[in-house]
Each structure stands twice: as C-alpha cells, then as structure tokens.
Design a protein that fits this description.
single chain; mainly alpha; about 70% helix; rod-shaped; binds 2-acetamido-2-deoxy-beta-D-glucopyranose; kinase
C-alpha cells in the first residue's frame, strides 16, 4: 500500500514534469477565445450586409399582390401592410443577431474540425519552446512553427488558412439558411401566417398574401449568399489580424 502510493506520487510528478516540458495545444479556453475574437471583429462587417439585405427584402414585399383579394377595407389593408413590414423587418433583425450569436461556433468548427485540423503533436520536429507560465508566445514563434499541429503558434503561422476555412463555412451557413425551405423563409412564412390569422383573412386571401410575400422574400434570399460572400471581408479583413494573433499567442 505504502509502496504503491509513493509510486503514484512518483508517476504523477514525472507526468507533470513531462507535460510542463512539452508544447501544449490550444485548449478549450483558447479555442473559445480566438473564435470569439474573430466573431467580435467580423460581426462589424456582417451587420451592414444584413442591413442591406433587410432594405432590399422589405422594398418589394407586396410586388404582385392584388389587395382586393385581402380586404375591401382600405383601413385594414393599411394596417395589415404596416404590420407585415414591421414583422418582416423585425425577423431580419432576428436573423442578424442569431447569425452573430452562431459565428463563434462556426469559426471554432472551421479551425479545429475542418481539414487541415489544427490539432495534435507540435514536438516532432521541435520548432518552438513552450514559454513559462504567464509569458506569451511571440510573433517569432508564429514564424517558426511551420507545420500544422495544435499549438497557438501553428494556428498563427497558418492564419490565412484558418481565416479562409472560416469564411467558407460562414458563407455556407448563409447559403443553407437562405435556401428555399430553409430557416429564413420558414420563419417569414410563419410570421405572415400569424398576421393573416389575426386579421381573419379568408383562406384564399391568406394564401395569396403568403404566396406573394414568400415569393418576393425568397427572390432576395436567392441572391443573398452571393451578395454576402462578395461583401463580407473581400480583402480578408487584415485590419483585425494583429489583435487576434496577440490574443491567440497569449494562450499556453
Ligand atoms: C441589395 O440589392 C442590391 C441591388 O440589387 C444588390 O447589389 C445587393 O447585392 C443586395 N444586397 C443584399 C445583401 O441583398
Ligand atoms: C415572428 O414570428 C415569431 C414566431 O412566430 C414571433 O415570435 C415574432 O414575434 C414575430 N416577429 C415579428 C416581428 O412579428
Ligand atoms: C429567428 O431566426 C432564426 C433563424 O436564424 C429562426 O430559426 C427563428 O425561428 C427566428 N425566431 C423567431 C422567434 O421567429
Ligand atoms: C484564401 O482564399 C483566397 C481566395 O479564395 C486565396 O486567394 C488565397 O490563396 C487563400 N489563402 C490561403 C492561405 O489559403
Ligand atoms: C450546410 O448544410 C449542409 C447540408 O445540410 C451541411 O452538411 C453543412 O454542415 C451545413 N453548413 C453549415 C456551415 O451550416
Ligand atoms: C378576428 O375575429 C375575432 C373573433 O371572431 C375577433 O375577436 C377579432 O377582433 C377579429 N380581428 C380583426 C382584426 O378583425
Ligand atoms: C499577453 O498577451 C495579452 C493579449 O495581447 C496581453 O494582454 C498581455 O499583457 C500579454 N502578457 C504579457 C506578459 O506580455
């Protein structure tokens, strides 16, 4: 029993020395930290694109509508159109905040789960030395760590690769959400249906309204992925890089 315990102490001490001497990987708080840093910076670029989308998509909401199928009362038409515009525009704001909320997860997945995955051993061959606790990695480490593995300097060395993977997935998310049958058009249809129900429209009136609005909205969704992709950091937004790299290099 006694011998066993001291063996354990010995083994633990050995393991601690071994770990302290090795090069660590970008752990949970590091992964979350850099994903949040990218998302915080890039959300500034995303917001105006969604604003333009909202402007576009609310501009011709009623194109092709026969209002006489909805109601014979101009007052009702007036109220219902105002409510629809508010609702659709509120829903676009919801899309914006939801997307920004989801950005860190998409970015984290792109960096660590998409090829090339920034995981694994950085000791073979050895390029950099783990700085002592409380000391940051340096930009020089970032230059030296020239193969793909799990530590912060490697992620930093291949910064553009990681940004590219993130842009691809962020674009893909917009494409998924904007597809016919996707979450965006589904949410809009639900809002229109709720309003048609509140105003006691006939089923013909409600169907006509829903068809027109969803057709018009979807026509903007059809071009949104291309608009988004070309408007979102066309130069890859280098202005945020230095701060994000410094943060990345502050993780052990
Ligand atoms: C908004 O519409 C303009 C003009 O058609 C188009 O150039 C732009 O890409 C659209 N933007 C978005 C985000 O839908
Ligand atoms: C749109 O519909 C959702 C769910 O049906 C509802 O929670 C939300 O309040 C509506 N938004 C607007 C702006 O009408
Ligand atoms: C907010 O937008 C998301 C899509 O990003 C959608 O799935 C959700 O239903 C919307 N919320 C409401 C209350 O309509
Ligand atoms: C990132 O993507 C751009 C455009 O798609 C490409 O020109 C560039 O070579 C890529 N950079 C890296 C490091 O993968
Ligand atoms: C987009 O949808 C495809 C197919 O459903 C899925 O495999 C992919 O993971 C989605 N991408 C993102 C970024 O949500
Ligand atoms: C719709 O019908 C309900 C019940 O018949 C009524 O209480 C409500 O005021 C009507 N709504 C409108 C906007 O006319
Ligand atoms: C490490 O980097 C972080 C982020 O840039 C910075 O706030 C911190 O002061 C740095 N620490 C040292 C010891 O230089």
């Amino acid at each position: 029993m006694k011998i066993f315990q001291s063996f354990n102490v010995f083994a633990t001490t050995f393991a601690m020395i071994f770990i302290a001497g090795s090069v660590k990987s970008c752990e949970k708080d590091c992964r979350a930290g850099i994903s949040n840093a990218f998302a915080d910076s890039w959300s500034n670029e995303v917001k105006p694109i969604f604003e333009n989308f909202k402007k576009n998509a609310t501009s011709n909401l009623f194109y092709g509508i026969s209002f006489d199928k909805i109601s014979s009362d101009p007052n009702v038409i007036n109220k219902i159109t105002k409510e629809l515009i508010n609702s659709v525009s509120g829903q676009c704001d919801n899309f914006t905040s939801e997307y920004i909320y989801e950005m860190p997860g998409v970015i984290q997945n792109a960096i660590f789960n998409e090829e090339p995955k920034f995981m694994g051993d950085c000791n073979n061959p050895k390029r950099v030395t783990q700085p002592p606790k409380g000391v940051n990695w340096t930009m020089d480490d970032c230059v030296k760590m020239d193969y793909v593995c799990g530590n912060p300097p490697s992620i930093c060395h291949f910064f553009d690769v990681n940004k590219n993977k993130s842009f691809v997935d962020l674009d893909q998310k917009i494409a998924n959400y904007s597809a016919p049958g996707g979450v965006y058009i589904t949410a809009i249809k639900n809002n229109v249906t709720a309003i048609a129900t509140n105003y006691n429209l006939t089923s013909d009136g409600a169907n006509h309204l829903e068809t027109c609005i969803s057709t018009n909205f979807q026509s903007w969704l059809n071009v949104f992925p291309a608009s988004f992709s070309s408007a979102f950091c066309p130069d890859m937004c280098p202005k945020y890089d230095t701060n994000i790299k410094l943060l990345l290099l502050s993780y052990p």
